[in-house]
């Protein structure tokens, strides 16, 4: 390891996302090219670097930096260069000169120890002084954190997140218990925390480590949709992560249960282990749903048959038997599930139910799990439909930054009837939050297609409720004539039954283009999306066509397809600003997707007259402007909402020329294009294909190898999830637990 010291004379390149920087370091002897992760570097800064000399094929000898430390500048020039570098908000070049002229070599000492004296400088008043002091402090602390943590492979973006969470306590928190990072900072998992712990010297066999490893294993299993793990599986998983004896893990499981971080439940001769919120939610869903289904509610006192007849006349339609049954059950029961595939008349049934209740002066409230699904429900019902999060009034807890729902059993939703659509997407946590905010006597109608992919979050709520046989379920199974015209609908049902599809019928809406290699598939998709489909069907290339892939990685995964599609659909142009972020280029005009719920993200209309909060997982927008000076990307959602992302928030955005099928749940697009090629069997499944195909309203184009299509249709191996909801619903009902 060698050390060098000098002043930064030039910055050749800086990647804003991961902090990788190439710069020139000048010292009395030489001008050296240094490379490495040095995100806070600025021209004129004096630094000391640690690292080694390397020989780059093209650029020759360079110094590869593993650690860098700012040297507090002592010369007047150094101090001036540091202050004038723009690192400190409120100080530009002119102000830097005035400050240095006034305080000379004591400048930095004054900013740090007697900052009020800055007011002696012309142009610095109370407000500016506060701004300078705050920025100087933050800068210093953030630097310290970056210097401490970059050797552990933590990128500057994460350092910033850590700093935002713990402020000046950051280093102290990490040194005391690095596993806290895994609990508190999204994106830092057990593995990174464990690496830091290892370097700090925390004992491999310490209880803290083992407990965190167990929680990590349980958290990981949520990603596969499990609400609990059987103890034997949990021990197996934790052993792989921790590399310690099973008995030690067993002891720590007991300690975690004692601390109420996890819950142990006996089922037959198995022990089930839940993270606490999941146990509470699973039990809560059972209790609430049985309670709501059993309590008294206002009788409508109407002749249902007569009401139905009159609505049928009004709409010029004859409801099928099961639709009539669904309407009657909706009126006569507390909780009802209406399920069915595409074109089976769910929407028509819901609209009839809404009208009957409204004609009888009942307040009907509509909601769906995502913004796009709620928008669609509004369109088809011609009434307001909210996202579940909005209906439950997302807010902040008074004594913390934690988000919570303001609607709950103490302040329930004011409604006589609540209809939830797309329930297959609702996980066990959200279902519990929803149900506990419904007052006894409100009728609840859950609508969804249980053959769609299950929720992204844990649980199998809709399927479990249906399978429990505890709640009334009406299954709509007739495909209506109008829907039969559509091969999308007909084929969707065929997929579900495992039957071969009708492909390439003339004048229809379902096509298969045969391509053998992955390269050919990508080329074909790029070509049809950018040329043939828009020309032939008069479509907007970006807005009307959505490419959906089953995998993120791989040749024909979302990442590669996005790169290929970007090259053709949004080429680089002189007038289009772009910015490099690790392996991604964000360019003005790019189609992007928000990939996590951000309930507090602010948006404004262009004329700033309208504003609001909340951008949700799956929302699609377009890059509208990139402001390099202020390091912000502006994205336009829903044609009116402009949202600013600082560079360190860009991990919430992904390109969306192509998205995963999972992310497309609850959304619909005029045209859907789907690559059909090899993937792990779990992703070559019937319900994945079914979900992708049912996203399309006008046209489906499959591109690839027909043998994988056949495999998908046959592969009915649904990804089994550990969920005890169906069983528990039965048990609770039998025990009459809730009637007390
Ligand atoms: N009883 C009926 N008689 C004739 N046509 C019907 C009947 N019910 C629904 N339809 C028609 O069938 C088509 C599909 O119905 P609807 O949109 O209600 O189904 P859906 O299950 O909501 O479908 P999707 O899930 O695809 O939105 C529509 O064109 C609708 O007008």
From TrEMBL:
Residues that, per the record, bind ATP: 343-347
Catalyses which reaction(s): ATP + H2O = ADP + phosphate + H(+)
CDD domains: DEXSc_RecD-like (cd17933), SF1_C_RecD (cd18809)
InterPro entries to which the protein is assigned, alphabetical: AAA+_ATPase (IPR003593), Coronavir_polyprotein_1ab (IPR050534), Hlx-hairpin-Hlx_DNA-bd_motif (IPR003583), P-loop_NTPase (IPR027417), RecD2 (IPR006345), RecD2-like_HHH (IPR029493), RecD2_N_OB (IPR055446), RecD2_SH13 (IPR041451)
Superkingdom of source: Bacteria
Limits of the AAA+ ATPase domain: 332-477
Record keywords: ATP-binding, DNA-binding, Helicase, Hydrolase, Isomerase, Nucleotide-binding
Its EC number(s): 5.6.2.3
One Pfam family in the UniProt entry: HHH_5
Gene3D superfamilies listed in its UniProt record: 1.10.10.2220, 2.30.30.940, 5' to 3' exonuclease, C-terminal subdomain, P-loop containing nucleotide triphosphate hydrolases
Boundaries of every Helix-hairpin-helix DNA-binding motif class domain copy: 81-102, 116-135, 180-199
Family named by the database record: Belongs to the RecD family. RecD2 subfamily.
Entry-linked HAMAP family: RecD2
Function: DNA-dependent ATPase and ATP-dependent 5'-3' DNA helicase. Has no activity on blunt DNA or DNA with 3'-overhangs, requires at least 10 bases of 5'-ssDNA for helicase activity.
Name the UniProt record assigns to this protein: ATP-dependent RecD2 DNA helicase
